[in-house]
Structure formats: structure tokens, C-alpha cells
Amino acid sequence: MRSLLFLSFFAIARLCLAQNEFPIWDGPAPGTENRANQELLVNERYQRVFQPSLTLHAPPQELSNGTAVLVIPGGGYHHVTIYKEGHHIASWLNTLGITAFVLKYRLDPDEALQDASRAIEVIRHRSDDFGIQPDQFGVMGFSAGGHLLLNTVSNANDKTCPDFLVVLYPVIDDIDLQNAFPQNASPTIVFAASDDQRTPPGNAISVYQSVLGAGQPVELHLYQNGGHGFAFGLGKGPVNDWTDRCARWLDAQGLLN
Q: Pseudo-torsion of CA 150, 153, 155, 157, nearest 10°?
């Protein structure tokens, strides 16, 4: 039954993507003015991203609670896993009444940081258009998307600092978890698997400790199995209940009212 439910999310995610995608920059993204467009979509993964964009997934109006989440898929800065860790996740968030935005970002880490920061500014600036509350805005990141989340928060200002974070099996290379990140930390929930061979579970523990040290509410879930990139966790055992745990946490923060 659970698999059928998630398959329905996948089908919904494909229905209206094109008309809900919009650019985040006015004109070409900085530094791309003389760059050739070599962007590819291969096996539901974007490679050589040329112009970053957001795709809006809005819940039914009667379900909407004003909370919004920017979803940042992973891909190791080699590609963007736009469906598995993007559109599919956004469709699930919609069932909670959350408005979701999936970020397609450029794959140079510095340019990705520009794109994520800009995306947050755009969403907050247009909060009335999207029917969301600018102070109920969070970011969810997977793997390299988790790295981009942490990097964005570490470099945030008043306009780009999220109100809550959902971090899944994050990469933490070159992230200052002692100073820069905790200065801008917000309520956070972290998920990972103990048998992850790509991003050690210690990464998730380090993020947890950083948020805890900053005095912010934080919760950590480390599953025995699940590996790396479990996304919804279908067919991977108990890890597939992370969405239920996440929903309960969001509710406890008053974000689903």
C-alpha cells in the first residue's frame, strides 16, 4: 500500500512541471552570458545545468497551511537528481499542505551557492503571490543538496536565512560547523543511515551537534540500514518511515497548522 501511495506521488509530480517552472535570475545567471547551453536531462538527472530555475508544487488550496520548503536535490555537483530527490519529494510535501519549490542549480559549488541564495530571496519576495508565510520557510537538502543547504545557511543574511531545516545524508566537506553555520542555525531535523558508504553517518551527527550547540531545537534519526541516497526509502526497510517522522516533527514545530 505504501509503495502504491508513493507511486501516485510520482505520477502527480510529472503532470504539471513545465508550466510551473520559472527562472530565478532576471536574464542570464551571473557568469553565463557567453556560455554555451549544453544542459542535458538523462535518466531523470540534469547534467551541465545552464540556467537555474525553480519548479513550484502548490498543494490544493483547501490544504495549504502557508508553510513553504525549498527542496535541493543531490547529485554530487555532477548532476541534479531532479525527480527522485526533487519533484517526488515535493509532491509528498503537498499532501502535508506545504508549498514546495524544487531547485535546479548550476553544478559549480560557488555558482550553486549563488543560485540557492537567490532562490530563497525570490521565494520570500514573492510570498504573497505564492500564498505562503515568509516566516514559515524551510530548506530540505539531500546529499550534495544537503551540502548546498549547509553552505547557504553558513553564508546567509537576514533575507536568506531559513526558518527551519530538513537535512538528509549530508556532505559536510568545507562546511564550518563550528562557527559560520551555527550562527545562522534554525530548528533542524536530520536523517541518515548507518550503512551509508558515501556520506558517513558521522556527517549527520556533526550537523546535529552543531545545531544543538547553537541552542536550537534539533532531532536526529540514524537508521541501521538504508545506504546512501535512499530518498523515499522504498524497499529499504524501516528507513522508509522517515517521511512520517518528518511530518510529526514539522507538526510539532507548528508548521502544519
A: 170
Distance CA(194)–CA(251), nearest Å, equals 26
pLDDT at 8: 52
Domains of the chain: 2-21+37-252 (3.40.50.1820)
pLDDT of 16 reads: 47
- Taking the CA atoms of residue 67, residue 70, residue 73 and residue 76 in that order, the dihedral angle to the nearest 10 degrees is -140
Mean pLDDT value of segment 23-52: 89
Q: Which cell numbers in the block locate residue 204?
A: 549527520
Cα separation, 84 vs 168, in Å, equals: 13
- Rounded to an integer, the average pLDDT of 224-249 is 91
Q: Which DSSP string do the residues of 82-151 spell out, in sequence order?
A: TIIIIIHHHHHHHHTT-EEEEEE--SSHHHHHHHHHHHHHHHHHTHHHHT--TTSEEEEEETHHHHHHHH
Phi, psi of 162 (to 5 degrees): -70, 165
- pLDDT tens for residues 171-196? 999 999 999 999 999 999 999 999 99
